[in-house]
Design goal:
The complex is a heterodimer of chains A (500) and B (107).
Chain A (H helix, E strand, L loop, with lengths): L19 H9 L5 H19 L2 E4 L1 H16 L11 E5 L26 H8 L3 E6 L33 H8 L5 E5 L6 H7 L2 E4 L20 E5 L2 H11 L29 E5 L8 H16 L3 E5 L7 H16 L17 H12 L2 H14 L5 H24 L2 E5 L14 H5 L6 H6 L3 E8 L5 E8 L4 H15 L14
Parallel strand pairs in A: 2-3, 2-4, 7-8, 7-9
Antiparallel strand pairs in A: 1-3, 4-6, 5-6, 5-10, 9-11, 10-11
Chain B lengths: L5 H10 L6 H18 L34 H5 L5 E2 L2 E2 L18
Antiparallel strand pairs in B: 1-2
Classes of the chains: A alpha/beta (500), B mainly alpha (107).
């Protein structure tokens, strides 16, 4: 099969790095076929992913069939969806009909779901070509993708470093040009943190904006699906496709979905940007400088800075590490060896449950199940889970007050750039990697991470914007301005396979 | 000093239906202690009259209409079952064989 070369003048962008809109427009215009774009991606995956480790499964046959269908429709002048022919890959916690879904856990090895997640249905209906499933921390529990039961995913900017997590396969694949866009899930920062580490845009929409139907549940009151892309405009396009009410998710919001691309006006004049002091206490100097530069760029374009306080911020980490494990321990009770997934042999039922779970779950998942079971057990519920849920209300009230004085909040996404494999020696050290991203999930707010420069060592950094519930549009608008002012431009990772 | 005793960790593992090897129990005892120490900050917060958080956007839980809708076939729903007999899933006996007490935590 033929692939696409850039065919343009020296310096032209490789087709592997074309934007979502570009790919869809060029296919619609007949400049290229969906099959050509797909084969370009498959060739890159073949060449690079052995070292990068982003994919857990590549659905070659399914993707080729989907691309051929787009080309057939194009040839027949049939209407094409807005993402027709755009190759998109999925974090392996989104269930896919007929395609193995593991959540990067041995307990689901070999499970073939009989249905598609809502977001996967939406992508397919829009004509997107689903390339395959991406690595992540087991059951999305982690901040480095080191907790995958299957493989190591490397950061394409520096293969000695992690891609972030838990959606580390998603961020690595997008940054390395192995797909046009990816979906991830974000329970405490699992889209935004890996996006920051790999130089991508990552958006966690408002809780309820996107249906969780078909998302392997980790912590149901925090989980949300979102896009990881190479530009804010691409994030807007993917978000447009997957957002909206779904009656199959009882927490789905029946709220109008605006045209997100209309928000990308390039204007921030008069926008009030809040700088919460608690988010600027401890971070690397490179991070501090990059976020200061971001704030200055916004001011230059007419935005106004507002210094303020979110006094309960320090409680987010302890609250999160009670709420998330408590909900996980309940959600993961379903993996018992009865209906699907792994079953360990045992002579009687209770021992079968315990042996199956002991053999199928990895160390971090076990730790969180244990912690959650402890927090939820009889006599402890009020002191732990209920208390943490009340603290969430205090955190949410902080944000409500802040948004009286500002329209969005600007913070670093992470306190450091991508760290080296094995650098976080204890679970508590690792949990600190999410310190700036957790509050957004606890309060249910939308958040976005946008690249805002490189460290002295050439590693990408992210600026985080947090917004009012359902106000993704303002985050995209301000995010696009940050991208244009201090983003990475055409700088691409070169750490693996001579990617650039 | 860990906040939990070994016996407590064994009890939680039993409640969680999670078989842990002896070295896993020891590590868990240490790790849970450290994490719970971190969580102690919450105890000092006054949450009198503070409601528990439910949703970022206030909403009433909806009820589905009580109508039959298309669903998975039995074959599709049972396709992943580790052991099956017709339309039934086969599991080991829930009564321990004579001489065994299967619910003891591993140690």
């Amino acid at each position: 099969m033929s692939t696409v070369s850039s065919g343009g003048p020296p310096g032209a962008v490789s087709p592997a790095f074309w934007s979502v809109a570009d790919i869809a427009q060029r296919i619609a215009a007949g400049e290229i076929t969906a099959t050509q774009i797909l084969e370009t991606m498959l060739a890159r995956i073949e060449a690079i992913d052995g070292e990068l480790g982003a994919f857990l499964a590549v659905d070659v046959a399914g993707a080729r069939a989907a691309a051929a269908e787009v080309d057939r429709r194009r040839a027949a002048n049939a209407p094409l969806g807005p993402l027709a022919g755009v190759p998109i890959a999925l974090k392996d916690v989104l269930v896919t009909r007929g395609l193995a879904t593991t959540a990067a856990s041995k307990i689901l090895q070999g499970w073939i779901p009989p249905y598609d997640a809502h977001v996967v249905e939406q992508l397919r209906a829009a004509g997107a070509v689903v390339l395959g499933k991406l690595n992540c921390d087991e059951f999305a529990m982690g901040s480095s993708t080191e907790n995958s039961a299957y493989r190591v995913t490397r950061n394409p900017w520096d293969p000695a470093r992690v891609p972030g997590g838990s959606s580390g396969g998603s961020s690595a694949a997008v940054a390395a040009g192995l797909c046009a866009a990816a979906l991830g899930t974000d329970t405490g920062g699992s889209i935004r943190q890996p996006a920051a580490f790999c130089g991508c845009v990552g958006m966690k929409p408002t809780y309820g904006r996107i249906s969780r139907w078909g998302v392997v549940a980790f912590a149901s009151s925090l989980d949300q699906v979102g896009p990881l892309t190479r530009s804010v405009a691409d994030a807007a396009l993917v978000l447009q496709t997957i957002a909206g009410f779904d009656p199959r998710d009882s927490t789905s919001l029946d709220a109008p979905v605006p045209r997100f691309t209309d928000a990308l006006t390039g204007e921030v004049a008069g926008l009030r940007i809040g700088l919460p002091q608690e988010y600027f206490e401890a971070m690397d100097d490179d991070v501090r400088a990059a976020v200061a530069q971001t704030a200055a760029a916004l001011v230059e374009r007419g935005a106004e800075l507002v210094e303020l306080s979110l006094p309960h911020t320090k409680l987010a980490l302890p609250a999160y590490y009670l709420v998330a494990p408590a909900e996980a321990s309940s959600n993961l009770a379903r993996y018992d060896g009865v209906r699907y997934g792994l079953r360990a042999p045992a002579p009687e039922l209770l021992e079968m449950y315990a042996r199956t779970r002991g053999a199928g779950f990895g160390p971090e998942v076990k730790r969180r199940i244990m912690l959650g079971t402890y927090a939820l057990r009889s006599g402890y519920y009020d002191a732990y889970y209920k208390k943490a849920q009340q603290v969430r209300t205090l955190i949410k009230r902080d944000f409500d007050r802040a948004f009286r004085y500002c329209d969005v909040l600007l913070t670093p996404t992470t306190p450091t750039a991508a760290f080296r494999f094995g650098a976080k020696a204890t679970p508590v050290d690792m949990y600190q990697a999410d310190v700036f991203t957790l509050s957004c999930n606890l309060a249910g707010l939308p958040g976005i991470s946008v690249p805002c420069g490189l460290t002295g060592d050439g590693l990408p950094l992210g600026a985080q914007l947090l917004g009012r519930p359902l106000d993704e549009a303002t985050l995209l608008r301000a995010g696009a301005v940050i991208e244009a002012a201090v983003g990475l431009g055409e700088r691409r990772p070169s750490g693996i396979g001579g990617i650039a | 000093m860990p906040a939990l005793t070994r016996k407590e960790v064994e009890e939680i593992a039993l409640l969680a239906r999670l078989h842990l090897e002896p070295e896993e129990l020891a590590r868990m005892q240490h790790d849970l202690g450290a994490i719970l120490e971190n969580a102690a900050a919450l105890a000092a917060v006054d949450t009198t009259d503070v409601p528990a958080m439910t949703h970022a956007v206030p909403m009433d839980l909806r009820m589905r209409l009580d109508v039959v809708e298309p669903s998975l076939t039995v074959d599709a729903a049972l396709g992943g079952a580790p052991q099956r007999e017709g339309d039934l899933i086969v599991v080991p006996s829930s009564i321990a064989p004579p001489g065994r007490v299967g619910t003891e935590p591993a140690s």
